[in-house]
Amino acid sequence: MSMKAELRRLRELDWRELDVREAGSWPLSLQLLCYALVLVVIFWAAHWYVVAPKIDALARAEVQERELLRQFESKSYQAANLPMMREQMAALEARMGVLLEMLPTGAEVPSLIDNISETALDNQLTIDFIRLRSPVPREFYTEQPFDIQVRGEYHRIGAFISGVASLPRIVTLHDFSLVPMEGGDTLQLSMLAKTYNHRSVTEDAQ
Description:
The protein has helices at 3-12, 28-80, 82-101, 109-122, 154-165, 201-205, and strands at residues 126-132, 136-137, 141-152, 172-180, 187-198. The chain has 206 residues and is α+β, with helices and mostly antiparallel strands. A hairpin with a 3-residue loop joins strand 2 (136-137) and strand 3. Helix 4 packs antiparallel against helix 5. The N and C termini lie far apart (102 Å).
């Protein structure tokens, strides 16, 4: 049967008289068209209900794969550098131990004040006062400030400051004020000094 004859039969076909029960007698082109339409519907349904969920699952698996690869690379790097990191940690802990030993305990603060007084006297300075302030709690340590005021010659004051900075306990110096006294070469030094006490976990819990 020629294509022209099939097209003529389609044009002459009364679509209102079509009966599905008589589909076998329909023109061949119409049957083929219906078969194609059924195949399209089946393909669409299979894609929507079977393939699409698999595609979503594949996309999620690919994202998970990338995340696992990133974690693997990170952990591989950490494992490769673990010996070096342990050495660095040991060095930091040793350094921390040295620094903690340089921090006076609360009972050692009066001894530190005596050391500062001796440093001033060794440099022939007159001590007006060395006065403790209230301690200031910080997150990991307690700050113990105190005011210092001494009088003497310029070079001796410089030697005194250097001596305080080189004490075996950590002392930081702040808010310097150096003013000349009336008559002579005497200067008055006023400054704020701070030392620090380490706050242990036990002390924080109390």
